[in-house]
Amino acid sequence: MTGFKGLKMGASHRPASHTDTPSSAAHWSPESWQARSVAQMIDYPDRDALDHSVAKLSALPPLVTSGEVERLTELIAQAQEGQRFLLQGGDCAETLDDCRPDKITAQLKILLQMSLVLVHGLKKPIIRIGRFAGQYAKPRSSTTESRGGTTLPSYFGDLVNASPFDAQSRRPDPERLLSAYHHAAVTLNFIRSLIDSGFADLHHPENWDLRFMEQAGLRPSLRAEYHNMTNQLAEALQFMEALGDGTVDELSRVEFFTSHEGLNLYYESAQTRQVPRKTGWWNLTTHLPWIGERTRGVDGAHIEYFRGIRNPVAVKIGADADPSEVVRLINVLNPDNEPGRTVLVTRMGAARAEKTLPPLLAHIADSRRRVLWVCDPMHGNTRASGADGSIKTRHFDDILSEVEMTIDAHARIGTNLGGMHLELTGEDVTECVGGSGGITEADLSSNYESLCDPRLNYQQALEMAFLVARRFGT
Ligand code: PEP
Ligand code: CO
Question: Is 376 helix (H, G, I), strand (E, B) or coil?
Fold first, then answer.
């Protein structure tokens, strides 16, 4: 994520084109989605204020460059060939308040450490992608929430409204589109600076891992295994450098890419640009936007928007997905079957994966569509906990078991599992139960911070990386 390219700035707020044709050959513009039915539509009460924010956002500089997006597309194409593995992780919902250096650094560190564990186990380079610098919008199962006789709009993430349960906080506020953009920009700026200043230089893992790992209450055997591994990595790098191997630079250079759910199409389309000397349109708010399980209807507004951009696009696929519908979806999003452009993120749930995954894998394989298969073992495994069922949690064993089933299903069908998508944090929260730290349901309230789904904490996330890496090795 280095090097800004000259981009055409200040694309104006363009009028919607009105077409109802679902055909992928139909005219497309960044706003043609507005003629379609929008799942998870936000009802902004002040339309003038919305137009004002969208126009302002359209004129601001892009957050990422088309060159970075092309680079990620290339890496994903290699992962589709089994040469790389993708690790995507971060908060379920980023909040504006959490835009703090300690929080961002902890997030980068856990992703980096997990990727080292995975490199070691899988023996292939890892593509690191954060759910950050824009993961501010959340789909909800209900548009409203009722408490004690009062009904208000649900909390749709900091991009839309605020979480406290009062009318003022829950009113969708278009100013937040700008505020989220600015928070995404400072988050990215900090990440770019950390990387540029050698924060994650693999030649010296001893400089950045020790103190953090002492603080984070890690099981001693896991810490020892981790140290052993990073020392081996450092030695291997030194050895290759001594031999004058030209690939060392590439191996030791750490890249991070950004991703978020492209849920709020006002935010996404306002930052969709054309770039000098390149064809097509680019979503320059993130490298890898994804389409959620609730918004992937093939004739809906989200697919209409996403079929027109050059970015790689990920799609979440749940247990109720019809495999032929998924092929239709891929054909609309990537009609020329270009490499590196389509990522399918399965999130079946441990209880259903064994039954639902193999027919899906087989059907897509038969269709000869080029996809990268990624496993999200989080979103099919959420359970209600607490006396009144109001606390959401996930069990470490369910999460691990879905990854294991997914690895086995791919092995049986002959497809390639090329990545893992997790909700995690580098902090010591108590949101998921299980793991060797022994978090129980009774512990959940001690440090539960997520405003949305429960995340693996630091120890659980690192442990998951070890277990998955080992499983791949067997
Ligand atoms: C998410 O990734 O936070 C999410 C809402 O996922 P899904 O669309 O798979 O439910
Ligand atoms: Co989530």
Answer: coil
Query: Do β-strands 85-90 and 417-423 pair in parallel, antiparallel, or remain unpaired?
Result: parallel
Ligand whose nearest atom lies closest to the CA of 375: 1
Report yes or no on whether pTM surpasses 0.85: yes
Q: Which residues of 106-121 are buried (b: 16+ CB within 10 A; e: fewer)?
A: bbbbbbbbbbbbbbbb
- If one residue of 294, 317, 451 were mutated to test the ligand 1 pocket, choosing by the most ligand atoms within 8 A of its CB, it would be 294
Q: Residue 19 belongs to what H/E stretch?
A: none
Sketch the domain layout of the chain as residue ranges.
Answer: 22-200+254-473
**CA 239 to ligand 1 center in whole angstroms:** 43
The token pair at 216 is: 């984070």
237: CA distance to ligand 1 center in Å?
A: 38
Q: What's the average model confidence in pLDDT over 133-157? A: 96
CA distance 110 to 292: 24
Dihedrals phi, psi of 44, to nearest 5 degrees: -75, 120
Other Cβ atoms closer than 10 A to 368:
8
pLDDT band, residue 206 (cuts 50/70/90):
low
Please give the full DSSP string across 147-207, using - where no structure is assigned: ETTEEEEPP--TTT--SSSSHHHHS--THHHHHHHHHHHHHHHHHHHHHHTTTT-TT-HHH
Q: Which of 4, 2, 134 is nearest to 61 (CA)?
A: 4
Question: Per-residue b/e over 164-187, b at no fewer than 16 CB within 10 Å?
Answer: eeeeeebebbbebbbbbbebbbeb
> Of 185, 174, 179, which is closest to residue 62 (Cα–Cα)?
185
Mutate to test the pocket of ligand 1, among 131, 347, 394 (most ligand atoms within 8 A of CB): 347
Q: How much is the pLDDT for 396?
A: 97
- Asked if residue 469 lies in contact with residue 122, where contact means CB atoms within 8 angstroms, the answer is yes
Q: Is 3.40.50.1100 the CATH number for 22-200+254-473?
A: no
